[in-house]
Amino acid sequence: MSTPTTPSKTTAAFYLQAGIAFAVSFVGTLLGIAYLPIDAWQRGFLGMSLLFLVTSTFTLAKVIRDQQEASTVRVRVDEARLEKLIAEHDPFKAAA
Q1: pTM of the model
Q2: 48 found inside a domain
Q3: CB neighbours of residue 56 within 10 Å
Q4: Is the pLDDT assigned to residue 23 strictly greater than 80?
């Protein structure tokens, strides 16, 4: 039986690039909203929409990551072992 390969780790450079890209796009959008020629309540609505979009994006990314991790072979093997232990356990058998 072959051992499953571990997923590749994210490099520090890619992590930094993703963080910088997020910060630049977020600040750019905030500045764009701030300088729009609209009323304050419209500007506030756009700002709240932006914040909701960002938080829902993080939530979606976490859900997708969790789903991917749950489908890995290692997790399924661990679940099968646990189910086997539970099935073999007899709670009425006296401890030796």
Answers
A1: 0.65
A2: yes
A3: 10
A4: yes
Q: Residue 9 falls within a domain, yes or no?
A: no
Number of other residues whose CB lies within 10 A of the CB of residue 91: 4
CA angle 88, 92, 96 (to 5 degrees): 80
In contact, 4 and 73? CB cutoff 8 Å: yes
Q: Give the Cα separation of 5 and 41 in Å (integer).
A: 53
- Average of per-residue pLDDT across 41-63: 96
Domain containing 23 equals 14-88
- Residue 50 CA to residue 46 CA, distance in Å, equals 6
Asked whether residue 27 is domain-assigned, the answer is yes
* Overall number of domains in the chain: 1
On whether residue 4 sits in a domain, the answer given is: no
